[in-house]
What we know:
Helices cover 9% and strands 45% of the residues. It contains three helices and nine strands, in the order βαββββαββββα. The longest helix has 6 residues, at 90-95.
Amino acid sequence: MSTVRKPLYADGKPLEIERKYLIEYPDIGWLENYPGVVKAEITQVYFDTENEQKLRVRSWKTADRTVYYLTRKKKISDMVRVEEESEITERDFLAMPGKGIGEKRSISKTRYCLPYHQRTVEVDIYPFWDDRATAEGELEREDEEVVLPDMLKVIREVTKEKEYTNYNLAAGRPEK
């Protein structure tokens, strides 16, 4: 959906560059009727690792099918991570906690992927909030800005606020 070309890290691995925003709870009807929207029910489970990487498995369920992913991320800066992602089987997804890696945290959410200005805006609705949500956009460079639809009311950018990472949201919900 997105036309973002992922830049590569020095070792040839793809980089994920994104900005994240705390937004007012959006109009769900507007999201669901947005032209080209893709709606997914997502469950993400994060695992402790012995190095600086974050290890995550994810189920991504749309109206048509469910796909499972294994993702390894390594933080380069507040906005940039090296990201390696591969599709796995449902069996592998369900077996992950049994592989000797301690389960850390899990989170479920509904994601709306909106094509907007030659990019994709991802709006995440969490079951523990009824007054706010998050929106993010992937970029090609750190100095780019994310353009959000006017219907999404930004409270503030939270890209650099650790408590708004999905990893940390899975452990506790920020109050502000």
